[in-house]
Specification:
Blueprint lengths: L8 E2 L4 E6 L2 E6 L1 H7 L2 E5 L6 E2 L4 E7 L2 E6 L4 E6 L2 H4 L3 H4 L7 E5 L11 H11 L1
Antiparallel strand pairs: 1-2, 2-3, 3-9, 4-6, 5-8, 6-7, 8-9
């Protein structure tokens, strides 16, 4: 069973966002990293880029192929996790500690459409 953390919001595409004030740290869930297999490359978004909720955010490549990652909320990329350039496998080792990028959230109401941990757990169970 996948590790699903409380205090995060989740998408149906298996991204998570941890909100701190008006900043959101985005990554992929434990469920997603298991499905992808060994992650070998992360194409980080550009700092300053605008992202839209549900829009392409970045690409994560694994031994199984390339996977588009979608933004759970709209905003501007304000920080990227550069450590992933040298160690993309960190996502496999700690998917919740290895965030991909942080955005300045432009519309906090979009977060209401995301799942909490309990809803996401039920969603993942229905996928198996």
């Amino acid at each position: 069973m996948a590790d699903i953390r409380d205090g995060l919001k989740y998408t149906k595409e298996h991204e998570w966002i941890r909100v701190e004030g008006n900043k959101g740290y985005i990554g992929i869930s434990d469920y997603a990293q298991h499905a992808m297999g060994d992650i070998v490359f992360v194409e980080l978004p550009e700092v300053g880029a605008s992202v839209s909720a549900g829009g392409d955010f970045c690409v994560v490549e694994s031994v199984k192929g390339a996977n588009d990652i979608y933004a759970p909320a709209s905003g501007e990329v304000v920080e990227v996790n550069e450590a992933l350039e040298d160690s993309p496998e960190a996502i496999n080792e700690d998917p919740y500690g290895s965030w991909i990028a942080a955005i300045e959230i432009s519309d906090a109401s979009e977060l209401d459409a995301l799942m909490d941990a309990e809803s996401y757990r039920s969603f993942c169970d229905s996928q198996e």
